[in-house]
Amino acid sequence: MFYSDEDEGFIAAVPELAGCSAFGETEGEALSEVNVAIDLWIETARGAGREGNAREGVR
């Protein structure tokens, strides 16, 4: 997680899941949002038959 001066908020990225990240005005908000993004990423990967891309223990 890092603070982005350009976006004026925190960005939480999940390197294990390509393109999975989230923004929040606070660290807590970014963490909450990235948990939603992880769930959606995994749901989408499974729907596309790419379950192998969702690594165990991401959280």
Mind explaining what this structure looks like?
This protein has one helix at 27-47, and strands spanning 2-4, 9-13, 21-24. A hairpin with a 7-residue loop joins strand 2 and strand 3. The protein has a 3-stranded antiparallel sheet, covered by helices on one side. The protein starts with a strand and ends in a 12-residue tail after the last helix. The chain has 1 helix and 3 strands, in the order βββα. The protein is of the alpha+beta class and 59 residues long.
Keywords:
36% helix; 59 residues; single chain; three-stranded antiparallel sheet; alpha+beta
The count of helical stretches stands at 1
**Low-confidence parts:** none
Largest sheet: 3 strands, antiparallel
Rg value: 12 Å
Q: How many beta-strand runs?
A: 3
Assembly type: single chain
SSE diagram, text form:
Layout: E1 2-4, E2 9-13, E3 21-24, H1 27-47
Antiparallel strand pairs: 1-2, 2-3
Quick take:
This protein has 59 residues and is of the alpha+beta class. 36% of the residues lie in helices and 20% in strands.
